[in-house]
C-alpha cells in the first residue's frame, strides 16, 4: 500500500480534471443508486474506477521483481521464442516487461484510464500480472500468486471512492522516493455536486 497508493495518486493526479470529473460522477452516481452507501454492489457498478485501479497496477506494479526456484522442468514461451527451464533453476521476473508489453497493450507506456472498461478491456486482465499471476486468476496453495491480491485491489478502489466522494479534483507534486513516488497533494477542489 505504501508503494501502490502514492503511485496510483500520481497517475490519477497527472491524468487531470477530465478523468477526475468522470470518476467523481461515476462514483457518486453508483453510491446514490445504492441507497447512498458505499457497498460492494456500488463498487462493482464503477467500471471506470475499477479500470483506473487495474491500469495503475499495470503501468507501475507495486512489486516489480519476483523470483523463485523451478519446482519442475517446464518451458517458458515468449512471443518469439521458447526457453527450457530445469528443476531447481532460479527464475527472475521483472513485471513491467510483461505489463508494458506493446504486443499486448496498445500505448503500453501510457496511463490509459479506460483500458480495462468493457468486454475487450476485461479480456486484458489476464495480462495484468502485478500479483505474480493474472489479475483474473486465483491464488492457491499450488501457485505463488499473492494471497492478498483481492484485498489490495479493494483497498485501492476504496481509496479512489473516498477521494472522489469528497472532492471533484486535486493537484499534486511528485518527487522520487525509495519506495516509488512521493506525492504531495497541493490542492483539493471540494465536491460541487
From TrEMBL:
Keywords on record: Fatty acid biosynthesis, Fatty acid metabolism, Iron, Lipid biosynthesis, Lipid metabolism, Lyase, Metal-binding, Oxylipin biosynthesis
Lineage of the species this protein comes from: Eukaryota, Viridiplantae, Streptophyta, Embryophyta, Tracheophyta
PANTHER family in the cross-refs: ALLENE OXIDE SYNTHASE, CHLOROPLASTIC (PTHR24286:SF255), CYTOCHROME P450 26 (PTHR24286)
Domain of life where this protein originates: Eukaryota
Alphabetical list of Pfam families matching this protein: p450
Record-stated family: Belongs to the cytochrome P450 family.
Protein name per UniProt: Allene oxide synthase
Organism: Rehmannia glutinosa (Chinese foxglove)
Keyword Lyase: yes
Amino acid at each position: 500500500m505504501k508503494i501502490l497508493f502514492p503511485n496510483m495518486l500520481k497517475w490519477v493526479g497527472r491524468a487531470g480534471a477530465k478523468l477526475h470529473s468522470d470518476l467523481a460522477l461515476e462514483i457518486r452516481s453508483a453510491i446514490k443508486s445504492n441507497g447512498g452507501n458505499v457497498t460492494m454492489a456500488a463498487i462493482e457498478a464503477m467500471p471506470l474506477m475499477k479500470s483506473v485501479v487495474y491500469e495503475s497496477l499495470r503501468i507501475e506494479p507495486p512489486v516489480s521483481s519476483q523470483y523463485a526456484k523451478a519446482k519442475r522442468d517446464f518451458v517458458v514461451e515468449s512471443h518469439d521464442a521458447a526457453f527450457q527451464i530445469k528443476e531447481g533453476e532460479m527464475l527472475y521476473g521483472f513485471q513491467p516487461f510483461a505489463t508494458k508489453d506493446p504486443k499486448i497493450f496498445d500505448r503500453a507506456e501510457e496511463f490509459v484510464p479506460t483500458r480495462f472498461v468493457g468486454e475487450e478491456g476485461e479480456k486484458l486482465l489476464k495480462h495484468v500480472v502485478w500479483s505474480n499471476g493474472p489479475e483474473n486468476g486465483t491464488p492457491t496453495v499450488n501457485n505463488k500468486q499473492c494471497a492478498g491480491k483481492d484485498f489490495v485491489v479493494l483497498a485501492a478502489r476504496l481509496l479512489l471512492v473516498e477521494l472522489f466522494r469528497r472532492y471533484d479534483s486535486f493537484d499534486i507534486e511528485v518527487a522520487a522516493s525509495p519506495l516509488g513516488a512521493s506525492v504531495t497533494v497541493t490542492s483539493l477542489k471540494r465536491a460541487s455536486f
